[in-house]
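PROTEIN DESIGN WORKSHEET
SECTION A - STRUCTURE
LENGTH: 441
TOKENS:
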């Protein structure tokens, strides 16, 4: 690409994602500060942290719809501005309202990074999209590892105030702003290949119905009364399967039989994200009696994920993306089962490593599959998948929480096995659909 510095832009995108990931680790660490020092209840802290998740989804959806109108570079600078404002507000937060507002800006900044940088990476590396998306997404688990270590070092070992930990975010923020400054940002792949906006909307597969489904999930996740009704172990997977089935029926009749592939990938994304993020977010409660600090498990899991994603290229070349997803689902089932029966530090650590290998490639490979096999879905397709993943996670978290309280960690982990079991079947179907698509081509 003429006048485009691929390496510099890729490093800048990785550092932007690093800021996003470190905010996740920081929230986990400073939760106790706002309850012990500032007198908030855990419920208030949970509500104040909520915008970090739904703000993420909102920014991704908005960015996906409008990125080609307002341009990628403007989404990037919007992310920078919202990160900057959010970090400053977080440093000044001392009550529920100020903490809530700070997380609104941080969540919108995080979502804007994903909305801009996923299509940026595919535009920079059109011949190896899935490989480079995996390398880009190294920095999410890698950032959580870095953030966790920094939190332990700054607050637990050196005993510095929590504001020092938050201030560390200014370092990668300043560097990624410097690296993006003055650079030519390429158009998204859709624009450069001449695909019309209308064609992108059609290939996404009735985006209105998908958006409505995600709005439904947001209501499920934020409405306690509705969420409490969805407590049966198999209810959530059945709802998701029903939604996907409805999508396929609608797509076949109402959209001139334009690709059924994207709605199917969308349904799979709900399950992969819930399997990965739902389990890791509850890691403390799930493994607190297993004889090893759950934060060590979290660092091990995210560390394995970071290394695995960095070296994903050879594996994807050998198995192709659908083969990687199918193998990952089988290993994730095994990992969850082993965690459910593990006791003692050694067995728990080994089981967590198996689970980490299973979920390692889910998120970036799902986005890569959409980009490679439904390329006309463009930036909107990638944003819809990412946003849906976070909303699905926010939906499954309270269900898992209630299950842990009522049935215990072991039963909860076994119930979670239902999700990757469904994915095993789904990815076999996906393999067949993609082969048919290739045969027609």
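SECTION B - SEQUENCE
RESIDUE ASSIGNMENT:
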């Amino acid at each position: 690409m003429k006048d485009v510095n691929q390496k510099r832009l890729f490093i800048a995108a990785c550092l932007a994602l690093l800021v996003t990931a470190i905010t996740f680790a920081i929230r986990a660490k400073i939760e106790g500060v706002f309850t012990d020092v500032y007198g908030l209840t855990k419920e208030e802290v949970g509500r104040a942290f909520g915008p970090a998740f739904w703000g993420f989804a909102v920014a991704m959806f908005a960015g996906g719809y409008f990125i080609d109108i307002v341009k990628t570079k403007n989404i990037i600078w919007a992310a920078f501005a919202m990160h900057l404002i959010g970090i400053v507000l977080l440093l000044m937060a001392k009550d529920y309202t100020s903490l809530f507002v700070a997380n609104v800006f941080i969540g919108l900044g995080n979502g804007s990074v994903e909305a801009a940088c996923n299509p940026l990476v595919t535009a920079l590396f059109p011949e190896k999209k899935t490989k480079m998306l995996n390398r880009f997404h190294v920095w999410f688990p890698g950032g959580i590892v870095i953030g966790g270590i920094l939190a332990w070092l700054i607050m637990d070992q050196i005993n510095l105030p929590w504001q020092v930990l938050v201030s560390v975010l200014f370092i990668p923020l300043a560097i990624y702003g410097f690296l993006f400054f003055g650079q030519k940002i390429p158009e998204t792949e859709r624009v450069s290949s001449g695909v019309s906006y209308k064609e992108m909307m059609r290939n996404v597969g009735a985006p209105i119905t998908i958006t409505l489904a995600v709005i439904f999930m947001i209501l499920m996740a934020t409405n306690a009364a509705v969420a409490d009704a969805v407590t049966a172990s198999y209810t959530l997977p059945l709802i998701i399967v029903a939604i996907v089935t409805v999508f396929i029926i609608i797509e076949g009749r109402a959209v001139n039989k334009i690709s059924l592939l994207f709605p199917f990938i969308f349904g799979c994304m709900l399950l992969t994200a819930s399997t990965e993020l739902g389990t890791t977010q509850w890691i403390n409660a799930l493994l607190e009696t297993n004889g090893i600090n759950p934060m060590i498990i979290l660092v091990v899991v995210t560390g394995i994920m970071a290394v695995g994603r960095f070296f994903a290229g050879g594996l994807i070349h050998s198995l192709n993306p659908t083969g990687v997803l199918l193998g990952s689902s089988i290993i994730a089932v095994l990992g969850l089962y082993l965690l459910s029966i593990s006791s003692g530090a050694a067995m728990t650590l080994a089981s967590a490593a198996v689970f980490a290998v299973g979920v390692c490639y889910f998120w970036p490979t799902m986005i890569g599959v959409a980009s490679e096999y439904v390329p006309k879905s463009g930036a909107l397709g990638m944003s819809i998948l990412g946003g849906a993943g976070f909303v699905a996670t926010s939906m499954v978290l309270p269900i898992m929480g209630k299950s842990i309280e009522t049935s215990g960690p072991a039963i909860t982990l076994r119930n979670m096995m239902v999700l990757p079991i469904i994915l095993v079947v789904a990815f076999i179907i996906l393999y067949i659909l993609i082969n048919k698509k290739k045969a027609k081509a």
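SECTION C - NOTES
The radius of gyration is 21 Å.
Confidence is low (pLDDT under 50) at residues 224-234, 249-258.
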